[in-house]
Write a structure and sequence with these properties.
mainly alpha, 11 helices
């Protein structure tokens, strides 16, 4: 959780709220998510057992810890600071509005809350859902996880390019509508080909929402560590609460 907040805050601050930069950051997250299951499966298939998988995770965590100390945590460049001082001196009302007074902060918070909730729920149940409904085999279900992350990776690459040319609000709206369409298609389909296309489409359009929303909220939280932490904490709450609600409903309804 700390790594996620630090990375998002760092790139959002240093990239001046660039949606493209944040999508590239999340593209790297997707690469890790795509590769990790393959590496862990390799250890198991070679008969090395779970201990070597744990050693691998510890090694990766240690590298991350070291790399965090190589980042430049100083404020933005003096040129940016001078520009900011000039703007404030010319127009005192341009001083930063408190993030909790900004509508953008709350809209972005709710978007991230439901995004992370949906992501955690889908990641948690779709393999067992497909297997239990008999739509696909256990092997294909597991393979589909990596294919989905490949679609997420491609989606973030495309979003990083489009973010430089499109209004981020239009990009977010398009991604949300397409995600809803593919999610509905996924849950009502029993055809293997249609289900596979749906899950890949879901991953593709799902991919750009989080980084683009964080970038779009930049004007409300830039320069405020508390604002960035609060926004990402709201997102994290969605990832915690939503699976609980879904699990409770599933226990009672199937």
């Amino acid at each position: 959780g700390c790594y996620s907040i630090l990375n998002n805050a760092f790139i959002n601050e240093k990239g001046d709220g660039s949606a493209s930069a944040l999508n590239i950051l999340h593209m790297v997250f997707a690469i890790g998510a795509f590769i990790s299951p393959l590496v862990l499966s390799f250890f198991v298939n070679c008969g090395l057992g779970w201990r070597y998988a744990v050693y691998f995770v510890i090694f990766g965590s240690a590298i991350s810890f070291v790399l965090l100390f190589t980042l430049d945590y100083s404020q933005n460049s003096s040129a940016n600071a001078d520009n900011s001082k000039t703007e404030v001196s010319e127009n005192p009302s341009r001083q930063q509005v408190k993030f909790w007074k900004s509508a953008v902060f709350y809209v972005s918070g709710f978007l991230l809350f439901f995004y992370l909730g949906l992501e955690n729920c889908v990641n948690g149940w779709f393999v067992s859902y497909f297997k239990d409904t008999g739509i696909m085999s256990q092997t294909f279900s597991n393979s589909l996880v990596s294919f989905t992350w490949a679609a997420v990776l491609f989606g973030r690459m495309v979003t990083a390019v489009l973010a430089k040319k499109m209004n981020p609000k239009i990009l977010i709206l398009t991604d949300c509508i397409a995600t809803a369409i593919f999610f509905i298609l996924l849950t009502v389909s029993t055809n293997l080909l249609l289900v596979t296309i749906s899950i890949l489409g879901l991953g593709f359009f799902f991919a750009g929402i989080y980084p683009t929303v964080v970038a779009n909220a930049g004007k409300a939280i830039r320069g405020s560590d508390a604002g960035t932490s609060a926004l990402l904490a709201i997102a994290a709450l969605g990832g915690i609460i939503t699976p609980q609600i879904v699990g409770t409903v599933a226990d009672k309804t199937g």
